[in-house]
Structures
1.
Amino acid sequence: MSDRLYIFDTTLRDGEQVPGCQLNTVEKIEVAKALEELGVDVIEAGFPISSPGDFKSVVEISKAVTWPTICALTRAVEKDIDVAAEALKYAKKGRIHTGIGTSFYHIHHKLNSNPDEILERAVRAVKYAKKYVEDVEFYAEDAGRTDNEYLARVVEAVIKAGATVVNIPDTTGYTMPYEFGEKIKYLIDNVRGVENAIISTHCHNDLGMATANTISGIINGARQAEVTINGIGERAGNTSLEEVVMTLKSRYKVLGIDTNINTKNIYKTSRMVSNLMNMPVQPNKAIVGRNAFAHSSGIHQDGVLKNRENYEIIDPTEVGINESSIVLTARSGRAALKHRLEILGYELTKEQLEDVYTKFLDLADKKKDIRDDDVAMLVDDAEKKERRIKLDFLQVVTGKTLQPMASVRLDIAGEKFDATASGNGPVDAAIRAVKQIVKRQVILEEFLIQAITRGSDDVGKVHMELEYDNVKYYGFGVNTDIITASVEAFLDAINKMKV
Ligand code: KIV
Ligand code: ZN
């Protein structure tokens, strides 16, 4: 049996069925091109009879994409197949994906039919599709709950009718990995002519087992996996491309099966699909979630810094994630902080590092995670130690019906000075209080507050331009408290004045 698994991506068909995730044709082309770059073998581009939009997307994707096979879905209905064939007319390699329900539920309660009639309709649909394209895939909908013996009869008949690929969907996400694997093995062992077609998996995630079922199917002989980016799809979704591909890649020694996927494109394709579909990826999602390669506990961070493989089974760069995996939190140690400082280009002495680390723990108590801007602020703070005029204390009282009041204490060359002032706002009150102490007739030329905001606990940056004695001085302050950042920026500029 071949050791190559074909990746059939159905993000643009099954994935796009998610309510609220519909894409327009231009967006679909963008995704299709990304899938081509990713290296998928088949792109299921839509269900042409379902809407003019789907029809158009299949046409345009067929024109835009070069080497992957473009697939169009149909029911086992002649009109569906005619429309799909028409939509595929520009595809360099086109496939019609036709099929019908084969489980007891579908045969009796959806199609109001019987097993023999369903088998006959399946064969008729495959033969009809063969008139248009050589490559015909048949799906036995709800195969997960279909009796294996009957399923084998259907599979044998459609292969005889010319199906090149037979899809065994676990439509309702019902099976368990050992059952799904046994089902595939049963077909491989019992269907005459099975070697003339590729058996495909198409697993839904209702019990959270889509990837496990797919891998079990592959181990037992399936050589095509139907997947979506980020696992999006009906209800709990489909098997995710990234999980299957990275399982095969990282466990190659055991499984010995390969794909054509350029794994370095996985992360960017995941981001693109998530952004275009407005479908956030859960933070703990395997492979592409925000936390998939994030280490926050001190022990883990230390272990990863000593040797990445202590706590990582996949090198994040293999899936295109190049950011640091060390998340700085209150549990991070000095080694993690030093590592981040080095990445940011700071070389601190042991004493400076100690000072920054103490402040870092203080800040980490207030913030959930510390980003590069925060680290820059801490280093900036450490440098402030050398200044002549330092902020020692600041208290501001403000509110909707209150006149803002600020009390400030400055440390000027070791001596403490206090002042209190009111102002138009809390920043104005604080600056007025500082001015009472430094007694300089400075003019505030420019005042820029930048909230580098991702959340309300983020740091704010303040840039100030002061004029004193016809000379301009620039000051910069960063703090989680915007009033403190403003006073720091003011003092930064004042400290630069020689007179
Ligand atoms: O889940 C399913 O059974 C399907 C088929 C239409 C292939 O999506
Ligand atoms: Zn499906």
2.
Amino acid sequence: MNMVLLGPPGAGKGTQADMLIKAYGLLHISTGAMLREAVKEGGELGAEIETYMNSGELVPDDIVTKAVTERMNKPDAADGVILDGYPRTRIQAESLDKALREENKSLDTVLYFKTSEEVAVYRLSGRRVCEKCGKNYHVVNIPPRVENICDKCNVKLIQREDDSPETVKNRLAVYGKRTKDLIVYYNEKGLLNEVDGDVQAKKLFDEIDILLKKKGLIENDDSN
Ligand code: AMP
């Protein structure tokens, strides 16, 4: 199954993707995570990407699409992927359609996380990240066992540069200008499923699980 998670920054797409891959074993492709890796690797391209990310702007379509299609063509993506943070523009959505077609694959569903700005800002401003393993926490909603320390790696958590209040404001504005259109794009294709991005993660996961089973996209293993 190939699935796109669509919604504003702070909608909880990454958290749901983690829960979905644990439950169904699909490959998680997060363009944000891929781009952060490219920044860490440095070089000219890394520096260029960093400038866009730190201001909350989108990285150019061709750079992101190349990275995603290369990743999707690796053998471990054969059984399906969860695309988190991609596509974010109409051009990217069309590139994704084309790339899937060329591999005789298709997009099975799009989950649109309808999320209020208030909830998105609250989640992003309280988000803390482990620099080593990339695990996300929230100071109130998902606190680590020891304050500000990663449960797994035992290293200090950081606040992402682009989670600063000014950049968050711009990221949400960029979403409104560049990405929101995709709701119409996927609705017209009959692929869009709206879910409530404001609710707590476990409740939303249960809702998604029921939805995917109803659509026959994952096996219904309830024996009773
Ligand atoms: P995220 O982790 O999904 O919030 O992404 C963090 C940042 O990475 C975004 O604000 C963009 O600068 C960049 N980014 C992630 N995905 C894309 C994409 N599909 N197209 C362009 N830029 C992206």
3.
Amino acid sequence: MANEARSGPAASAGPAAAQRHRRPVPPLPPGSWLGLLGGGQLGRMFCMAAQSMGYRVCVLDPGADSPAGSIADRHLRADYLDEAALAKIASSCRATTTEFENVPARALEFLAGHGVVSPAADSVAIAQDRRAEKAFVRGCGLETAPWIDVASAEDLQRAPPALLPGILKVARLGYDGKGQASVTSIDEAVAAFERFGSVPCVLEQRLALALEVSVVVARGFDGRSVAYPVAENVHRDGILATSTVPARISQSLAVRAVEATQRIADAMDYVGVLCVEFFVLADGSLRVNEMAPRPHNSGHYSIDACVTSQFEQQARVLAGLPLGSTHQHQAAVMINLLGDCWFRHQGDAQPTATPREPDWNVVLAHPFAKLHLYGKRDARPGRKMGHVTVLADAVDEAVRVAVQVERGLGIGSLGVTVGR
Ligand code: ATP
Ligand code: MG
């Protein structure tokens, strides 16, 4: 499915917007330095895309051996609020982006005073907090799971009974299902709230999901945006397990998901790559789950299956270049490789105590399967270590091969995740 570029409401509306969206004029030429806050795998894939277009990348990350830091042209090993490090980025990089949403807004604000920043600090601030995110989405006229904001145990005591069974989620800093508890009673919700340290939370109703889908869009400084095909996602234990693209859904549902994502991006006057995750209910209606102000795990397939990957779009937006085509030239299934694969190989009855390298021939033996490893040294259960993208002319064929790859790697010892 190819998605044509569209123009949203005008990106700039007066001097405030012009300041907020300082843009690279003229576009940054190859050889320019781009700044990146965060050194994880999303940053690594951004580096690769930007470097392949001739840019140099300066990564700020406190870790010694981060996936992006180890391949960046320069790695500043310091805290995200380290003034000296931020000043170095400000002086060498005319444009800076982020690879995770929990970067302190103050770091983005500081850099915005010196050059181009995408996405803007206020967009990131919305996605950092589930309360702000849900309120924003509702303000766009879109539906979410019913929820309440929780600041105290009393808020839970007053919760409408219809929210149970529900999920208590910390408002900030949750990822991969961390900071979440399934609860069936108010007492359980209060206990979970206290276990989380009584930090602000949301209590949301557990919905009966027919399916989960996501949409990645890229939106430039001029307000033009392009959307990727809808991904159909399977989660296991709160962590994305597989994405099948294009999603096996009706055309009308795909259009509604893309339109909803573009509506959110336009309403935020968003600049950069944005992903919105949706729940699909049995009646075919959509509920927005959450958004990520950056490339997303469910868009990794775009590296191998699309004309322009989501990471290249991130670099293009940042450098002030035109957006590339999101056309998908082959169907794809992306399989996440969690650290668990190092502990339980095919045929193992039990996980082993020490990690062993998986048998990558299981992947490489398929000529249309592409292996991506993030260079992380320590495999731990639940840790994202890499992914595989299986390509095929038809989605059913990609699913068939992906099931073989999962079985061969011992993924889905609890049941294969791909397929229906
Ligand atoms: P990630 O960072 O991987 O996106 P996260 O920690 O932000 O995850 P959520 O996206 O809120 O967590 O939830 C993870 C998964 O848990 C969802 O994709 C979905 O499978 C399930 N889930 C979350 N909220 C609900 C809900 N209200 N009803 C049903 N299932 C839910
Ligand atoms: Mg999520």
